[in-house]
Amino acid sequence: MVRGLAQHLRPLLAGVNSFANGQAFAQYAVPAVAVPKAGMFGGSKRILTPLSEPLANVNIPNPTAPKAPELQTGTLANGVKAAALDASGPNTCVAAFVGGGSSVETEETAGASKLLEYMAFSATHNRTSFRIARELEKYGAVSSCAAGREHIAYVIEGTRLQASEVTEILLDSVLNQKLADWEVHDMLARVEEDLESAYSNPALLAHELLHKAAFSGGLSNSLLPDPASVNGLSGEALRAFMAQTFVAGNIAVTGAGVSLAQLQAVADPLLAGAAAGSAPAAAKSAYTGGFLACLSPGAEPTVAVAFEAKGGLGDLKSTATAAVVKALLGSSSREVLPYNRKALDGPLTSVTPLVQVYKSTGLIGVMGTTSSGSSAAAADALTAKLKALASSTGEAQLAAAKQVALGGYQSAISARSGVVQDMGLQLLARGKFSAQEYAAAVAGLSAADVSKYVGEVLKSPLTMVAVGGIASLPKYDVVAGKLLA
């Protein structure tokens, strides 16, 4: 038996030895490329072209640049404005913008916009909250909502293959909100908790005080209302607020990664049932300037000074100039201009430019934090930054600031969510959208334009607010008088 087994193993062991000597490779290995037989006269036909050289008789198509996305604008059913940027790519983003926000709120509906932000994409008359969440999960989509002073934005980002489906969910969630009392009641506790947390932030509190001091009318309404006033809202109050603001003439639908025809095919049947009408008449906002201070023991002293930025979103040159001025003012958290990379002046521990542009007006200024007892010096340092821009702006500084402004804008609209937001805001304010016009307005600014703009800004009444320790804060008249000196 052993002798028979050895006879069977002997050929295999011989094969192992031949592999070790390199003799069996030709017998067992399979060549990667078959070698043709020699020709009639013994010549080889094997191709010996190096990989670094193109193969003969192989046509390689010339590379072509991708087609620039085409902006399409139009009007949907019931007069709803629409814009779509049919950009290539696997993702899509659709949004619905409702004009209004906190600027159209009254004493009875104070905080409605913020509460609607939290109630977004909850139950509708066609879907439960659970169904909306599961459908968005099924399509790999993400929803969000943000309430501002002049708008409420509903956004869904998903894949291009499900663009029609997510558009239908978006408009159903905006136009057919159920707002059941029990859901509103459950959400109020979360809203109150978040508002209390926001008011403990000195920067956010100073930002709210700026609007309260600077404007009369709708823009003076707080975007972060008193938690006690929000607690009085109900589903009925929200539905009454929506009946005035969620009307066809006050809605804009935008999309990126989807065509206008595709938007229209889905949106028209849903928008046909929307309430007709135009934007509600908000309390007319006027810039007045003023002073407000909030004593907040333990909070980091924060001082902000601001002025009116005239023109608003309706004036493209004014909007572009405000963006360049913001870049010139710099930022303590991320210094973007080479000439600004230096230690902060005097008592300031941080400086943040403030630029808020609305439909017909805006705010421009600076906010800074300081140490305890240095509020007066901080106010002087902040106003000095603005006065310096009014006197002169170097060409090198201006060129760098324009690049920062354009870079920031291009970075914002490079994302689908950013471009749909810019389209929505411009459609509500100007009735059209053009990124090229904005870029041309920034590129065409001169140093004289910037100095003239800042000079006109400083002629408006001063707005000054302070949060934290205010014992050393100077009088409003003293700071305003230094600006005129």
TrEMBL record:
<dbReference type="GO" id="GO:0005739">
    <property type="term" value="C:mitochondrion"/>
</dbReference>
<dbReference type="InterPro" id="IPR011249">
    <property type="entry name" value="Metalloenz_LuxS/M16"/>
</dbReference>
<dbReference type="InterPro" id="IPR050361">
    <property type="entry name" value="MPP/UQCRC_Complex"/>
</dbReference>
<dbReference type="InterPro" id="IPR011765">
    <property type="entry name" value="Pept_M16_N"/>
</dbReference>
<protein>
    <recommendedName>
        <fullName>Peptidase M16 N-terminal domain-containing protein</fullName>
    </recommendedName>
</protein>
<feature type="domain" description="Peptidase M16 N-terminal">
    <location>
        <begin position="90"/>
        <end position="224"/>
    </location>
</feature>
<dbReference type="GO" id="GO:0046872">
    <property type="term" value="F:metal ion binding"/>
</dbReference>
<dbReference type="Pfam" id="PF00675">
    <property type="entry name" value="Peptidase_M16"/>
</dbReference>
<comment type="similarity">
    <text>Belongs to the peptidase M16 family.</text>
</comment>
